[in-house]
Amino acid sequence: MRTTRSIFFLVPLALFLGMWVRCGVLRAENEGLDDLDKATEAKLSSRGPAELTKVIQLLDSALEKGLDKDNSEFAEQLLVASLVERATMIASLVLDRPVPHPRWPEFREKALEDLRRALDIDDQQSQGHLLVGRLLSLPLGDREEAIQSFNKVIENEAADLKTKAKAYIYRGNIQTDEKAGLADFNRAVELLPEDTDILRTRAMYFLRLNRFTDALADLDKALEIDPKHAPTHEIRGLALMMMKQFDEALAAFDRAAELIPESSSPQQNRARVLALQGQLDNALAAVDKAIELDPKAISAWMLRCQLLIAQGKIDEAMKAIDEVLTLRPKWDQAVRVKAEILAGTGRIDEAIKCLEEVAQEGQKNTEIQIQLAMYYMVQKRSRDAIVLYTEVLRREADNLRALRNRADAYLNIGKHSEAIADYEKANQLKSDDSGVLNNFAWVLATSPFDQLRNGQRAIELATKACELTDFQAAHILSTRAAAHAETGDFEAAIQWATKAIEVNRAEQDDDGNPLDPEELEHLENELKSYQEKKPWRELLEEEPTPKSEENTPSEDAPARTIDF
Q1: Sign of CA dihedral 208, 212, 215, 216
Q2: Is 1 helix (H, G, I), strand (E, B) or coil?
Q3: DSSP at 6
C-alpha cells in the first residue's frame, strides 16, 4: 500500500503547520518507500533467481529503513512470495530434472534457507511447507522433519484440495510402515478421485508393494478418464512386465509409442521386455530405435551396453558405456559398469584407475569405494581395501558388505581378532549369509591364536552355512570338517572333508577336469591332516605372534571365501 501525496492549497497557517508535521511523521515511517517501489517494479519483471535476489535485497532494505504498518505488511507478503519463488526455481534443479544437478545438495540447502525464512514470516504458506517436505525427503535429508512439513499442509484449513492431496502422496512415499503409506495414498484419492495423476501415483505405490492387480485397476481407471495418456500406458506396461505378461506389456508399450512416436521411452521398455523373453537381437534393435529417436538418451545407451554384455560383445559394450560417460562425465553408475567390463577382461589395473579417478573427486560414494576395495583385494592389497571399508563404515556402521569384506581383508593379513569382530557384527545384521557364516566358522576353527578359537561355535556356524547351500559347496563342507577337527572329532572331520572332495570332483569342465584343481589339492591336504589327527591351522608360519599383531604377515594367505 502506498502513502497518498496531497496537493496543498492555501490554508490557514495553523492547519498548514499541522499537516506539515503529520507528513513529516509519515515520511519518517516510510523511509523505505522508494526501495519498496523499486522492489515492486523489479518483481513484475523478474524471470530468474538473480532478478529475485535483487527484489529480496530491495525489500530487506525497505523494511530496515522503515515502513508504516500497511506498507510493512505488503513488503513482507512480497518478500515471502519472492523467497518461495526463488526457492522453487532453485529446488527445480534438484527435484524436476531426470538427472539431478551434480551440486544438488548445495542447491537443496539454498532452497531450504529461503523457505525457512519465508515460513518464519508466514507459517501458513502451504506451498512452502510442501517444498520443504519434498527437499527433506531426499537422501541425507530429515524424514521426520519432512513429515512434519507435510502435516502442516494437511492440517492447514486454507490449503486447497490439490495441495493437500500432494502432501498425502509425498508423506505416503516416505512412510516406513506400508499400511500408513497406503492410507495416505488412499486419502489422496478420496480427496480427488478423478485426478489421473493421483491414480497413477497410487498405482506406482501398489507396484512397490507387488500388488499388481490393484495397480492395474488404478491405471485402467486413469485410462478411462484419459485414454490417450501415453505415460499411463507405459506404467501399465511396466506392471504387466512385472507380472511376466510379456505380450500384453509389449502391446501397452506399442500403444504408448503410437501416442508419442517421438519419445524413446516406449522403445526402451520394449527392449527390456524382449530381453526378458530372451530375444536379445530384437531387444537391441528396439534400443537402437530409441537411440535414433533420442541420441542423448543416457538410459538407452546404458541398456544397450547391458544387452551387448549379455551377448558377449564386450568391445561394443565398452563403446556404449564410453558414450554414456561422454553424455554424463564421471557418472558413478556408468564408471562402475566400465570398471566391471575392464575387470572382467582381466584389466584390473585399468578398472582400479577408473574407479580411483571418481573416488578422488571428493564425493564419497559407498558403491564406488566398495567396488574399488574389492579390486584391491584381488590384487592382494588388503590393507588398502581395509582403509576404504573403514571409511564406508564410519558413515554407515551397519553396511553388511563393508563389514563382511573388511573381515575377509583382515583375515588375509592375519588380523584374526579384528576379522572375528567384523564377522560377529555382520552375522548379527544378517544371520543367513552363507559367506559370513563360512568365513566366521573358518577363522574360529583354524586361527593359530589359541584364545580366538572356538570349535563348538564354528561347528554351529558351518552347519548352518552347509544347510543354506544344500551341502553342495565344497569350501563350506571343508570348513565344517575343520570345525570338527578343532573339537577333536577327527572321524567327523574326515567324513566332511571327504564329502568336500567329492563335491569338488563332481564340478568338471567339458574335458572332465576339476573346475578348481588348486582347491582340490588344498582339500586333499586338509583330509590328510585329519587322518593324521592334526587340526588345520591357516598358514601359521605367516601369522603374527599372539602377543602382538603389529608385524603382519604376507598378504598371500587367502580369506576363506570364493566371493568377495
Answers
A1: positive
A2: coil
A3: P
Contact 30, 71 (CB under 8 A): yes
- What is the CA angle 268-273-276, rounded to 5? 125
Place of cell 603382519: 552
Biggest CA pair distance of the chain? 128
Interatomic CA distance for residues 61 and 422, integer angstroms: 59
pLDDT of res. 365: 86
CA distances from 333 to 302, 321, 322, 392 (A): 10, 10, 12, 18
Residue 16 has what pLDDT?
A: 37
Cα–Cα distance for residue pair 497/477, rounded to 1 Å = 7
Phi/psi for 527 (5° steps) reads -60, -40
Angle at 497 between CA 510 and CA 558, to 5 degrees: 75
Joined together, the cell numbers standing for residue 348 give 584390473
DSSP state letter for 2: P
Residues 280 and 278: their CA atoms lie apart, in Å, by 6
Report CA Rg, the chain. 33
Would you state the pLDDT for residue 169?
Answer: 96
Residue with cell 516510510: 30
Q: Which three cell numbers stand for residue 69?
A: 504498518
Q: How many helices, marked H, and strands, marked E, lie in the chain?
A: 28, 0
SS3 549: coil
Distance CA 84, CA 29 (A): 27
- The pair phi, psi for residue 285, each rounded to 5°, is -65, -40
The torsion region of residue 539 among left (phi > 0), alpha (psi -120 to 50) and beta comes to: left
The confidence score (pLDDT) of residue 517 equals 82
Cα separation, 536 vs 527, in Å, equals: 9
Spans of the chain, pLDDT less than 50: 1-26, 540-559, 561-564
Grid cell for residue 346: 582381466
CA distance 152 to 169: 14
Encode pLDDT of 230-270 as tens digits.
999 999 999 999 999 999 999 999 999 999 999 999 999 99
Count Cβ atoms below 10 Å from residue 306 Cβ, excluding itself.
19
Q: How far apart are CA 98 and CA 209, in angstroms?
A: 24
Cβ pair 335, 329 in contact under 8 A: no
C-alpha cell at 241: 512386465
DSSP for 226-259, please give it: -TT-HHHHHHHHHHHHHTT-HHHHHHHHHHHHHH
Extract the C-alpha cell encoding 544: 603374527
Q: Which residue has the cell 502442516?
A: 152
State the Cα–Cα distance between residues 289 and 310, nearest whole angstrom. 19
Helix (H, G, I), strand (E, B) or coil at 493: helix
DSSP string, 290-335: HHHH-TT-HHHHHHHHHHHHHTT-HHHHHHHHHHHHHHSTT-HHHH
DSSP 540: G
Cβ–Cβ under 8 Å, residues 403 and 393: yes
User: The pTM is what?
Assistant: 0.73
Q: How many Å apart are CA 499 and CA 474, to the nearest integer?
A: 8
Q: Dihedrals φ, ψ of 508, to 5°?
A: -120, 155
Instruction: Decide: helix, strand or coil at residue 462.
Output: helix
Q: d(Cα 433, Cα 418) in Å, to the nearest integer?
A: 19
